[in-house]
Design brief:
The chain is an all-alpha fold. It has helices at residues 2-21, 30-49, 57-78, 81-84, 86-90, 98-123, 137-161, 164-178, 194-197, 201-215, 224-243. Helix 3 (57-78) packs parallel to helix 7 and helix 3 runs antiparallel to helix 8. The relative contact order is 0.15.
Amino acid sequence: MLKHFLELTLLIVRRELVIRYRGTVLGYLWSILNPIAFALVYFIAFRYILRIPVENYAIFMITGLFPWIWMSNAISSGTTAFGSFQGVVKNGYSRPIIIPFFIVLTEFVNFLFALPVIYLFVAISPVQLPVTSLIYFPVLALLTGLFLLGAVSIVSCLCLILRDLGHFTQLAVQMLFFLSPIIYPSDMVPEKFLAIYALNPFVNMIELWRQLLYSGDVNLTLAIYPLIFSLCLLLIGGVCLKRIGSRAVQWL
């Protein structure tokens, strides 16, 4: 069973990456060029027009943007998860949890491809390369993976029976981009809004990834709230997969 799962995982991830970049000249480089292009636009807009007072703003933004892309792409892909993997769903041999797992893992591989680019930007900047902080990478990757696994499980199942939820999810992801400390630091949020702002689990996760990739000073206490939030999502996601995902063929 484990061997079958590993073989299927490698096959699906490889297939997704091949399909995504098939027929393009630059191939996987598009996964890097696209966010860099957006980063350049945001850099000009927020550094030179709105004049956000952050030292080494380009590195600050990139180290928050790339982890966000992993998370947002996974959640967005979850809206069409079961439809995209109809072959796996209909074979009857795999459990529904494998669909969200494939999506999270595929986007994580894309994130891994982007890591050398992030560290290249950090290396050529005045910022000292935070090599020692990489020991926390497995912890943050696991935390983010658990969060996404729960979120994608919920979204993928509910979108089977509530088609409009996919559009709402896409809109919510766009809103959360500006409600997370990606293009601005958290200390710019007015104090009267901080309590509500902190309810967003992406806030702490973006801060943790930025600490790992940029400052090198990782404060693991920030992981407590996202971990609790992730466990709740996994519990709800498990119920959704059992009651809806296991009957996904009925809605496809």
